[in-house]
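Batch 3, record 17
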Amino acid sequence: MAKLGPSSYSPYPVAMYESILNPPPGKALMYDEIVDEEIAMREAAKAMLTRDNPTIFPGPQVLYEWNEEAKEKARLVRRIADTLGAKIIPMYDYRPKYPKIDPEKEINPNHPNLTIWHNNIKACIFVGVHCHYANVALKIIRAETDCFTIALCGNAGHEDAMITLRDQHTEELEKFIRVIEEVKRELGR
Amino acid sequence: MSFNIFKINEDLKEFMPPEIVDLEEKATWGNPKRGVMDLPYSKELLEEHSLCAGCPESAAFRYILASLPNPEETIIVNSTGCTSLVFPHIALHTVHSLFGNQNAIASGIKRVLEWRFPDKVKDVIVLAGDGATVDIGLDCTLQSFFRQEKITTICFDNEVYANTGGQESGLTVKGHVFKMAPKGKQWDKVPIWQIAIDSGCHYVARLTVSSPKKVEKVIKQAIYVAREVGPTYVHLYTPCILEIGLNSDDGLEEMRRTDKERFKFFEYMTDEAKEVIQRKKEEGLI
Ligand SMILES: Cc1ncc(C[n+]2csc(CCOP(=O)(O)OP(=O)(O)O)c2C)c(N)n1
Ligand code: SF4
Ligand SMILES: [Mg+2]
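Prediction for the assembled complex:
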């Protein structure tokens, strides 16, 4: 289950059923392994730089200017996208959308697979999505697609993502940008 | 919650769909004088609706959402039914309750909000169909009135269980035949507006939604009284054109017809409610 590729739908919290838990503070989760943050950041950067149609899905916590940190994080998310050369598709709210979503312009937590299928996204980053909806969406993506998922989480992380980086605030996001630049150089980009 | 929750970060604005940008730039937030007259000029809080074409409930929704004096601090609790399919399109905090439980849930939300945000005004509104309000949820509806919960209850009375295909409800009129009530209803329509008065509501109104301005006035009065005094109840006739066999453009005519008879405008208020309404009028808020 910790591997890449459709895991098929299960009503249970799949990763947790396989004893995959969130990383302890200061560490990160890569597949089913607890690793140093730096290592996970490098792997995340590599996935976003080498897989097809890398995309960042920012959620309400960074899309809206509800405090100073959110404003600063939005600026950094934009910089991450520019550095990676990734697309941005927002998850601006969590309402189920009828009759259909526009998968080129939005991603909805209730059927995130539609956006991923439509744009053939093979690597993505969740940032600023509230925990519950990130969990729901990541579980559906893991069940239905072969997209490499990365969670940049401000809290404890998401075991359903292939890489989860926890306690990510402005300082950590700045560090991630530096890591991306390094990996880019190594890849000769 | 901060009012800035509606402000989009400049760095990511270009990726937001226009309807969300419009909510920030063209919707009427922070203005208690907002009302139905803004409808042609401002961004509505309802994006689109999933009701039948011409369903009067859609008009009711638009008028109510345009009239909320404090939308940024309003929570609407709804119940299953045709109305519940509209809630995902509304740009407000809404909570979907188990069918019939809406007034109990709203009571809890209101109490917690008062405790959690003692220095903020938060309006809690229940919006549900006649089946939810007067049949399956009657217990919760009335108990919230007895307990004097400071919430506004709005009933969309289409005189039938519409969403499940036409069963009779307590608010169906005697003798009416529906697809799943083939013998015709054998009992009278429940006079819920009177029961609301007897159960302790401080403001009660019964009307159709044929007149947008009247709906606005009633909704504002009900909300202001609920804020300060106690439970209020608004009964709106929103005929189910599908189940009574009318065309899409017949809803308004049906409401105008009943304006003169069964749903003649009726309003009740206690002295405390009168005082609030008078004060709000003087402040230019109604
Ligand atoms: C606990 C529960 N019982 C029954 C139902 C089935 N149900 C769904 S909609 C509905 C009728 C709703 O009627 P009303 O409240 O009048 O709303 P309308 O659809 O007419 O607007 C019923 C009985 C349900 N969803 N949940
Ligand atoms: S079934 Fe009736 S109440 Fe429901 S949306 Fe259609 S017309 Fe409106
Ligand atoms: Mg009904």
